[in-house]
Amino acid sequence: MGHAYSVLTVKHFPQQGFQLLKIRNPWGGGAEWSGKWGDNSEMWTQYPAIAEACEASAGDDGCFWMEWEDVKAYFCGGGVCMVKPTWHDYRVRGAFDGLHSNVVLEVTVTKPTKMFCVLSQPDKRGHPKNDKSVKYAPAMVSVWRKDDEKEGQYRFHLNSSGDADAPTEAFKFQKSRDRAMLYEFTPEHGPYLVVPRVNKVKPDFKRDFVVGLISESPIDGADVQVKFKNFEKDCKLFKNYPRMMYNPEEVPEIETEFQHTPQDGAPNNKKGTTLSF
Hints:
mainly beta, 7-stranded antiparallel sheet
């Protein structure tokens, strides 16, 4: 089908043994499913009670119904779009050089603050399938914080997993455009380090990336502050070490581009060593 479709409704009919999904083509028209339970399928006349429950109707509106077994056969994957319309959307540019990330985000909060931390690689769509330069690298987002046991020492806390709202202590690198995790930052363990990571890449691997911070509080230097740090290439942050020594004063800041997208209006772009608008 070529691109992402949205799931509008799910209906389960255990007596007849059907699980149906109402799906929408985001283009609003054109290609629709023409198989079983499609607009003109005989299944609707065979099961009038299901047709009534689904309010089935034919039309070139981009919406159609599919049975779960067909969805699994014709779609390559799916996910949950976690919409937070009142949260604040920030993006920070960076680049990988081998395993090294030139930008690590240092996050300090004055009150508990939840954020989605998102690592995005360039989209491979539109490129030839055999173009190895755009294949997604195994990637992960990692959050480090102060070690409760040893002063001056930091330990990795949680990593992204297959579920954005279920970060894990395991090192789970996955080949996909976006890796994300929901994390709650607290004052007592800061400043934190949000680390973009890749694994099993060649020493000459180079790739731009973007880190997104979707925050419940504005990142304005008051309740939430984010600085951009540049660590040495051989730093333990970029390997699967559990701990390391870290003094914020000893690691230099780096200037990079960043963006804030307001709830209304166009994105704002700036460049600097601290995320602020």
